[in-house]
Amino acid sequence: KAGVTQTPRYLIKTRGQQVTLSCSPISGHRSVSWYQQTPGQGLQFLFEYFSETQRNKGNFPGRFSGRQFSNSRSEMNVSTLELGDSALYLCASTPPRETGYTGELFFGEGSRLTVL
Amino acid sequence: QKEVEQDPGPLSVPEGAIVSLNCTYSNSAFQYFMWYRQYSRKGPELLMYTYSSGNKEDGRFTAQVDKSSKYISLFIRDSQPSDSATYLCAMYAGTYKYIFGTGTRLKVLA
User: Fold this and answer.
1) Which residue of chain B is at minimal alpha-carbon distance from A49?
2) Residue B66: how many CB atoms within 10 A of its CB?
3) How far from each other are the two terminal CA atoms of chain B, in whole angstroms?
């Protein structure tokens, strides 16, 4: 079974630009979460989607947005990039509760964004 | 103050040592407690998952939760160089949101 796939793996942008990151969850997983990982702050919750609906959002400015498609694939977008947005952006999917949900997040390898 | 505190390390131990990794948390509403392992340039992977106070063992790994003290631990017995990674504690905060510690970097020396 294929794992969570994130694209692109690495990207460099300049301040003021925008970026779109993509995530394909494990087949059968309908919940997708996004986390930002930085050395000082660790993993911070961005948002979670299920069946194309955002069910929760973290404490990030409105420049950070996301969406989920009917096939459970998800994208996140960051507009007007700032230097502080440089981070590893991790996507995670969660198996459905009826399969014996354990709270496990299955993470992709992340998209490493560098803002210059 | 962060909701979850974790010593960032780095922690260096000789091969075969017992490793103790810890996190403290402030929110008594946290229900599920997890430990993730993250190798360099990889995403985190779940190691251990516990719900209640007490110990849970899986091979060389033991997870311990003390809800009264708001303190969780991960013990690694007979540590191996392949255990060298960053270890993240995580807690389910409800509404599909998880709170992570900043991670402890562990290096096991051969």
Assistant:
1) B96
2) 12
3) 37
Residue A104: what pLDDT?
Answer: 81
Yes or no: say if A45 and B97 are a contact pair by the CB < 8 Å rule.
yes
Where are any strands of DSSP class E within chain B? 4-6, 11-14, 19-25, 33-38, 45-50, 54-58, 61-66, 71-76, 85-94, 97-100, 104-109
Please name which of A24, A13, A22, A29 lies closest in space to residue A89, comparing C-alpha atoms. A22
Chain B residues closer than 8 Å to A105 by CB: 36, 44, 46, 90, 98
Instruction: Give 10-residue mean pLDDT values along chain B (110 residues).
Output: 87 96 93 93 91 89 94 96 96 89 95
CA distance B103 to B105: 7
Those residues with Cβ within 8 angstroms of residue B28's Cβ, 6 or more apart along the chain or in another chain: B67, B70
Q: What is the pLDDT of residue B96?
A: 86
